[in-house]
Automatic annotation (TrEMBL):
<dbReference type="Pfam" id="PF24883">
    <property type="entry name" value="NPHP3_N"/>
</dbReference>
<keyword id="KW-0677">Repeat</keyword>
<dbReference type="InterPro" id="IPR011990">
    <property type="entry name" value="TPR-like_helical_dom_sf"/>
</dbReference>
<dbReference type="InterPro" id="IPR056883">
    <property type="entry name" value="NPHP3_hel"/>
</dbReference>
<dbReference type="InterPro" id="IPR019734">
    <property type="entry name" value="TPR_rpt"/>
</dbReference>
<dbReference type="Pfam" id="PF24884">
    <property type="entry name" value="NPHP3_hel"/>
</dbReference>
<keyword id="KW-0966">Cell projection</keyword>
<dbReference type="GO" id="GO:0016055">
    <property type="term" value="P:Wnt signaling pathway"/>
</dbReference>
<keyword id="KW-0175">Coiled coil</keyword>
<keyword id="KW-0969">Cilium</keyword>
<feature type="domain" description="Nephrocystin 3-like N-terminal">
    <location>
        <begin position="512"/>
        <end position="634"/>
    </location>
</feature>
<dbReference type="Pfam" id="PF24885">
    <property type="entry name" value="TPR_NPHP3"/>
</dbReference>
<dbReference type="InterPro" id="IPR056884">
    <property type="entry name" value="NPHP3-like_N"/>
</dbReference>
<dbReference type="Pfam" id="PF25022">
    <property type="entry name" value="NPHP3"/>
</dbReference>
<feature type="domain" description="Nephrocystin-3 TPR-repeats region">
    <location>
        <begin position="832"/>
        <end position="1056"/>
    </location>
</feature>
<dbReference type="InterPro" id="IPR056886">
    <property type="entry name" value="NPHP3_ab_dom"/>
</dbReference>
<dbReference type="InterPro" id="IPR027417">
    <property type="entry name" value="P-loop_NTPase"/>
</dbReference>
């Protein structure tokens, strides 16, 4: 049978079933465990392999021994694994312990770092608080420093005034001493015994000196300490060096030689005429041509109005004047005689169109105009002749009388009406240019330039770098003349003495406050006193400003200070660049005032009427509270109800209500001028009524007297008085005036036109002209407009200001708002829209005038439409017009309203200029583009943006050199402006080269004796002076002064005087 091992297949696997080779006869199949070969290495040597006879068999081992070997192997493997595990466990435990130690160490480090972080955060917060405290302390220190500097400057001025006062007193004492010594010598020479001066009692004289010095104690505060003042140094040097030192100009820098006395006297004689000269033929900036015609000459008049009047209007607009052809059609309109006479008085030129007959209704009017003509205005008589027809005796007689008296030009025309109208137009155009507007000087300059293309040289080129607006000056002149118009003195003589005492009082003294209620006569008092001062004190320089409506340009503080500063510069013979920054302008005005006061030999009086109407008066007029130079006096008038609290401490001159005597005098004079006389009973009624402050002020009594004088007959006086005595204040009386004028109009259409006229004037910025009213109201005829304006003017409701109709008093403006605007807001909005549409249409037609530049941005500002305001400002010609007329503060305020700073504003203008340049093709457009670039460059230079100002000025120079000629005078203008930027930028080498080029071009174009040459010489002298090259500067100054002196003697106009010199 064999052993059990023989049944095992040597190659079998565990659990393998052995097949039955006996086909199921030998027995059952079963599973037999298979021996597994041990893997342990240590047992391999105890086993032997059998030979090939029994493959797969084992030698020398039983079944039992095989199992034990397997256990041993397993045990050995177990031990090994156990040892390895123990080693692994120990290593991991060690690693874990190490990691726990590291974790504990990291936790400790983390806690330490957290503590440090908290400490650092606390330190940071502490440092941050210290920084904030330091910044706050810094700002406080800066504020204290600014306050200290202001106080220091104030103390300097105080001490300066104190010292100058004492110097004057010392000079007076020395003069008195010399006089006493001379008197003593004369007495001794006569043998008269003289007491010893040491024995005399000098207490009285000492007390007088102390009393005089006590006047200086008005200004308080601060320790004394100052640099020598210009005024004291000038006075001391004049005392020791003689009167010739007074010939030097204000800015004494460097060793300049003095101008001789004859030259200075000639200059001063012309300098007295520093106010712009306006033609006597102009009525308030308007060229008015009054046309008189008969039925036979109606065709010529129609052709002249329709064809030639627009041409004359366009020319006058370019010269910044209004033009109006006044014509009353005989067949449809017959205004009252007083209205026609008033229109003739206002006219600049009267034209009479005659043919064969002259109606008797026109004969008296023609004789008044052409035969009397007391003012010597230019007049024209157009006389159309026809062959075979004889004129009437009245026509022939009038023509012969006019020809004999030689007071008018006569055009005798034979031919058609078209040719006749053209002949009239040619004469009128020539008369306007030569006699009325005085443009003959410009024509002479064209000939001197030898270049007719230079006909539009900018006016500021003659004026230097100072931007002057003649409209502002003319408006002030007219305001002064209107304020001084009065039927009688109204008992103001007692106030004149108080004002005279102000001028004679020793310095320093604060401004004098003239206060009173509305309409109390403050403007009348100041204007009358100004006339007295100009008449009796020739050495006194008076600067005045009358403030109008609070929303008008006359109430803008920057324009007021600019105007007054320019007046000081004119009298100083200096045309230094004037800042456009309102804050800096507020600082420069006192400096110029101090400079001129040191140079001026007489007193300087500054008068500002209605100063409380100025926008933010306390902020912009703060120079009033600072000490003034010794010879400067300031008088301001305010409404007693609106006077700022800080000003109430000043010396005050309060105007009392008019006395009954003055009331009766005023009313009787008005009535006598109308050939009326009041009864005793009527006078008693007036005396009884005029007892309160509101019914005894000058304006109320004036209105009342005008109403009574306008009654027309003695029978109507009682009715007028009955209505007037119901009015207890000026506004209610103005309402009665408005009602009476309203009822005097014939139709409802005319009454509606009256309302529209007053609303348009009320809404406007500075007023509306008559020609603008005709265009704004197509249904308005000249007859209705003339009658309405005449009535309102006569009743002190409206007045003229630089050609514009405006309200004469604030009470009239308030009356219009109460009567027409508070009840009907739609009328207010409709009138504003009409004005906006009118001036917008002008811009769309490229008709940018000073009126559209003044009104349209302001109307958009009042409307609150910022988008349209920005679009209007980006019309380059609008901004150019505002800047060139000196309204830069107004222009800046518009941009500030839009939220734009200087840089963003410059970027907006650059973008607009680039767009405009793309559309410029013709030569005249390129010249206009060059002007715009130059204006932008000057504007940016004045704003202090020097780096940005170079590019537009350089571009302007390039365009002019290309479009005109490299030697053209406008190229010299560009060079001059570009050099000015380099001077301000301290690049003197570049500036000198440009100034020399400009000088060479100007000499070649105008000759060596022209004012533009003098300006370039002045600019070079100033440049050399800044480089301490005093000898070269002095030589150029003398050369420039000689040119100016010759021009003054030759022309004597403001344009010559404004060139000036700067030492």
């Amino acid at each position: 049978m064999g052993t059990a091992s023989s049944l095992v297949s040597p190659v079998g696997t565990v659990g393998e079933v052995i097949e039955d080779t006996y086909e199921g006869v030998g027995g059952e199949a079963c599973e037999i465990p298979v021996e597994v070969k041990p893997k342990a290495r240590l047992l391999r040597s105890s086993f032997r392999r059998v030979g090939t006879s029994r493959p797969g068999g084992l030698i020398g081992a039983s079944f039992k021994s095989t199992a034990s070997v397997q256990e041993l192997e397993c045990m050995a493997e177990y031990e090994r694994l156990k040892k390895e595990y123990e080693i692994f466990r120990i290593s991991k435990n060690n690693e874990l312990a190490s990691m726990m130690k590291k974790e504990a160490k990291l936790d400790k480090e983390n806690k330490r770092l957290r503590a440090e972080l908290q400490a650092l955060q606390k330190t940071y917060q502490k440092i941050l608080r210290e920084k904030e405290s330091a910044l706050e302390a810094k700002y406080q220190a800066m504020e204290r420093a600014a306050t200290f500097e202001h106080d220091r400057d104030k103390v300097k001025r105080q001490f300066k005034i104190f010292r100058e006062t004492k110097e004057n007193e010392i000079q007076d004492l020395l003069r008195a001493k010399r006089e006493l010594e001379a008197k003593l010598q004369r007495l001794q020479a006569q043998g008269i015994h003289i007491f010893d001066p040491e024995e005399t009692d000098s207490d009285d004289s000492c007390s007088e000196v102390a009393a005089t010095g006590a006047q200086s104690e008005y200004w308080s505060g601060g320790a004394l300490g100052s640099e020598p003042s210009m005024g004291s140094m000038m006075q001391l040097q004049q005392s020791f060096r003689g009167p010739e030192f007074a010939q030097s100009s204000i800015d004494v820098e460097g060793p300049f030689a003095n101008i001789n006395r004859d030259d200075w006297d000639a200059a001063v004689a012309s300098l007295l005429q520093v106010t712009p000269l306006f033609s006597h033929s102009l009525w308030s900036n308007t060229v008015r041509v009054y046309l008189i015609n008969t039925e036979e000459t109606k065709s010529e008049v129609d052709i002249f109005i329709q064809k030639y009047s627009p041409k004359l209007q366009k020319y006058c607009e370019t010269m910044e004047y209004f033009f109006q052809a006044v014509h009353f059609r005989v067949e449809t309109e017959s205004p009252i005689q007083s209205v026609r006479k008033w229109e003739i008085e206002k006219s600049s030129l009267t034209i009479l169109f005659l043919h064969l007959t002259l109606p008797s209704c026109l004969l008296e009017e023609c004789e008044e105009v052409f035969l009397k003509n007391p003012e010597g205005k230019p007049h024209l008589l157009y006389y159309r002749l026809e062959e075979g027809q004889n004129s009437s005796d009245s026509v022939q007689q009038l023509v012969e009388q006019v020809r004999y008296m030689n007071k008018a030009k006569i055009i005798s025309h034979v031919g058609g009406v078209e040719e006749g109208a053209h002949a009239v137009y040619s004469y009128v155009e020539k008369t306007i240019k030569k006699d009325i507007l005085g443009c003959e000087m410009a024509e002479l300059e064209k000939k001197d330039a030898a270049d007719n293309s230079d006909s539009s040289v900018p006016e500021e080129e003659i004026f230097g770098d100072v931007l002057w607006d003649a409209h502002d000056e003319q408006e002030q002149m007219e305001a002064f003349q209107q304020a001084s118009n009065s039927t009688c003195e109204l008992g103001f003589e007692k106030y004149y003495e108080r004002l005279n005492d102000l001028v004679a009082a020793p310095a320093p003294i604060p401004p004098l406050l003239v206060s009173g209620g509305p309409g109390s006569g403050k403007s009348l008092l100041l204007s009358k006193w100004i006339q007295l001062q100009q008449k009796h004190s020739s050495n006194t320089l008076i600067l005045y400003h009358f403030v109008g409506k609070p929303t008008s340009s006359s109430a803008e503080p920057a324009l007021i200070l600019k105007r007054l500063t320019l007046k000081l510069m004119q009298h100083s013979w200096s045309v230094s660049p004037l800042t456009v920054d309102p804050a800096k302008l507020l600082e420069e005005f006192p400096r110029w005032l101090e400079k001129l006061s040191a140079h001026h030999q007489g007193s300087i009086i500054i008068i500002i009427d209605s100063v409380d109407r100025i926008q933010q008066a306390e902020k912009h007029m703060k120079w009033l509270i600072d000490p003034l130079p010794v010879n400067v006096r300031v008088v301001v008038s305010v409404n007693v109800e609106t006077c700022p609290q800080a000003w109430r401490l000043w010396p005050t001159l309060h105007l009392d209500p008019l006395s009954i005597k003055d009331v009766n005098s005023l009313i009787n004079k008005e009535c006598s001028s109308a050939s009326l006389k009041l009864t005793k009973e009527q006078e008693k009624k007036l005396e009884k009524h005029c007892h309160s402050s509101t019914t005894c002020n000058a304006l109320y009594v004036t209105l009342l007297s005008r109403m009574v004088a306008g009654a027309g007959s003695a029978e109507n006086i009682d009715l007028i008085l009955q209505k007037c005595l119901l009015c207890q204040d000026t506004v209610s009386l103005y309402k009665l005036v408005l009602k009476s004028i309203h009822e005097s109009l014939k139709s409802e259409k005319d009454q509606g036109l009256l309302k529209e006229i007053l609303c348009l004037i009320s809404i406007s910025h500075n007023g509306v002209s008559e020609s603008e009213l005709i265009e704004l109201c197509p249904e308005l005829s000249w007859a209705v407009l003339a009658s309405v304006v005449h009535s309102l003017y006569k009743m002190c409701f409206l007045t003229y200001g630089c050609g514009l109709l405006k309200f004469r008093h604030l009470q009239a403006w308030e009356t219009v708002k109460l009567e027409f605007m508070e009840e009907d807001h739609n009328a207010f909005d409709a009138c504003r829209k009409k004005l906006i549409d009118y001036f917008t249409k002008q811009l769309s037609q490229e008709r940018v005038t000073w009126r559209s530049a003044d009104e349209l941005p302001w109307l958009f500002q009042q409307q609150g439409d910022k988008q349209k305001l920005q679009k209007c400002l980006l019309n380059l010609f609008v901004s150019q017009n505002l800047y060139k007329r000196g309204h830069f503060a107004e222009l800046l305020s518009y941009w500030q309203l839009l939220g734009k700073d200087k840089n963003s504003m410059a970027a907006e203008y650059f973008s607009s200029l680039k767009l405009y340049e793309k559309s410029c093709e013709r030569e005249e457009n390129m010249i206009s583009l060059a002007d715009l670039y130059e204006t932008l460059g000057r504007f940016l230079k004045d704003l202090g943006l020097l780096s940005q100002a170079i590019a537009p000025l350089q571009r302007s120079l390039e365009i002019r050199e290309t479009a005109l000629d490299p030697d053209h005078p406008r190229v010299a203008q560009s060079l001059h402006q570009l050099a000015g930027v380099y001077v301000q930028w301290k690049k003197f080498g570049n500036a000198e080269q440009l100034y020399k080029q400009a000088l060479e071009i100007s000499e070649n174009a105008y000759g060596t004796e022209h004012l533009r040459v003098a300006r370039e010489l002045d600019a070079l002298a100033t440049l050399y002076q800044k480089q301490n090259k005093y000898e070269q500067a002095e030589h150029l100054r003398k050369k420039s002064f000689k040119i100016q002196q010759k021009a003054v003697r030759r022309k004597g106009s403001l344009k010559v005087i404004m060139v000036g010199r700067r030492l």
